[in-house]
Every structure is written in structure tokens, then in C-alpha cells.
Write a structure and sequence with these properties.
Elements lengths: L6 H13 L1 H4 L18 H13 L6 H20 L1 H28 L1 H6 L1 H20 L5 H15 L3 E2 L22 E2 L10
Antiparallel strand pairs: 1-2
Helix pairs in contact: 1-3, 1-4, 3-7, 5-7, 5-8
């Protein structure tokens, strides 16, 4: 939950996701299970949590830092051992998340009120895509095609949002600078009525 962030929950979810990476990484499904009452397992969802936890490392207890190191070790081992599957999952997830944003833009054209209330999942999707693109770049995977898809999505996204204060819990603001994560400092405006635009 990005609106009420806790390191403890992020760490718990990251640990469960890392533990379930095998066999998930080589199975033919995009969304896996990391346990009951857990967010869906994807490599991007794990990368999202690892970035936040690393950025907030100075505020952790020694035990939390130790647990984070274990989670990272598992993720790195899977990344190395299952490299081809790992990369394939990342590309698949990027394409899927960007495609999943398309109905939202249609919704915004049809119902500005719904557009405003349904923005948070889209902001999360776009943030996970950003994390994946960074990871693919670090792996020296060609990302031009995916970056073009992201840019096309961003053009539509910019058409429905306007600047505002950081939309997630203030504890996460330092993790996401506005220059790189501008969509977390924007949201659709609440319309006065619900007429199509």
C-alpha cells in the first residue's frame, strides 16, 4: 500500500516474493503467487520493493537490513541462474503493464470522474515499468522498443493528469524524485460533473 507505507510490510512482501521466485521465474505465467493476502508476484513488483527498501536502508533496524540482504541475495542468484527466463519475464511484464494502461485512457475520455478515482493503480503500473526498464538497462538488454512504448503511454498519461503534491505516503517521496517519476506528482483533476470530454 503506497498510501500508508511501512518498511516492515515492504520487507515482508519482498521476502515472500523472493522465496517464490523459483519456480515462478521459469513458469509460463506473468502473475505468480507469493502467499495468501500478498500482492501478485512479478519480477517488477519485487524490484519496486527492493528499490524502496534500499533507499530507506538508513532508517532500518539491523535485523531489517540483514533480512533485506538475504532477499537481495536470492534475487541476484535467480537473476544469474535463470538469466534468460528473468529477462523474458521483465520484457513480458513491461509490455503487459503498458498495455493494461490503455483502457484507463479510454475510461478518462468517457468518464472524467472515474478517471480521477482510478488513477492510483495506473501510477503504480507506470512506476513498476520504470523499475523494469532500469533493470533491463543494467542487464544490457536492448530496451529501445520498450522505451518507445513507454513514451507513447506517457503522452496519453500527460493528457489526463495535472501537477499536484506527491500522491503516495510522504515516507516514499525521497525515493521518487519528480524529474524521473513525474506521474507520482500528478493526478487527474476531479470534474465538476461527469459529462464526457
Amino acid at each position: 500500500m503506497e498510501l500508508t507505507y511501512t518498511i516492515e510490510r515492504d520487507l515482508h512482501e519482498a521476502a515472500a516474493m523472493a522465496e517464490a521466485l523459483v519456480p515462478y521465474i521459469y513458469e509460463d505465467q506473468l502473475y505468480g503467487k507469493a502467499g495468501s493476502k500478498m500482492p501478485s508476484l512479478t519480477v517488477g513488483a519485487l524490484l519496486l520493493r527492493l528499490r524502496r527498501l534500499n533507499a530507506l536502508r538508513d532508517t532500518m533496524t539491523d535485523a531489517q537490513r540483514e533480512q533485506l540482504a538475504k532477499v537481495e541475495a536470492v534475487q541476484q542468484d535467480v537473476r544469474k541462474e535463470w538469466r534468460q527466463h528473468y529477462e523474458k519475464k521483465l520484457v513480458w511484464e513491461t509490455e503487459s503493464r503498458l498495455k493494461a494502461m490503455m483502457p484507463y485512457f479510454e475510461e478518462c475520455r468517457e468518464s472524467p470522474r472515474l478517471c480521477a478515482s482510478a488513477y492510483l493503480p495506473e501510477a503504480l503500473r507506470r512506476t513498476i515499468v520504470a523499475e523494469i526498464l532500469l533493470e533491463l538497462d543494467a542487464l544490457n538488454v536492448e530496451v529501445n522498443k520498450l522505451e518507445r512504448q513507454a513514451q507513447k503511454t506517457d503522452i496519453q498519461l500527460r493528457g489526463v493528469i495535472q501537477p499536484c503534491d506527491f500522491i503516495w505516503d510522504a515516507a516514499l517521496q525521497a525515493v521518487y524524485p519528480p524529474e524521473s517519476y513525474w506521474w507520482l506528482y500528478h493526478r487527474p483533476s476531479e470534474p465538476m460533473d461527469d459529462k464526457p470530454i
